[in-house]
Amino acid sequence: ASSVNGPSGSTMTCNGMTQFINSDFSVYHKHFSQMKGI
Q1: Helices (H), 1-38
Q2: pLDDT tens digits along 12-37
Q3: How far is CA 26 from the centre of its chain?
Q4: Helix (H, G, I), strand (E, B), or coil: what is residue 20?
Q5: 1 partner at 20 to 30 Å CA-CA among 12, 16, 25, 33?
């Protein structure tokens, strides 16, 4: 059971981090575009 929980747990964390980074980047990109007046 632990050998199944390990990879799935790390995959969930990886997906969560990717989703967090993507959402954070989109907010930053929107803010940066407004600063440049694009």
Answers
A1: 2-36
A2: 677 777 887 888 888 888 877 887 77
A3: 10
A4: helix
A5: 16
Alpha-carbon distance of 7 to 10, in angstroms, equals 5
Residue listed under structure tokens 């199944």: 4
Amino acid sitting at position 36: K
Which amino acid does the sequence have at 32? F
Dist CA 30 CA 25 (whole Å)? 8
SS3 label, residue 37: coil
pTM to 2 decimal places: 0.35
> In this predicted model, which residue has the larger pLDDT, 24 or 1?
24
pLDDT score, position 3 = 54
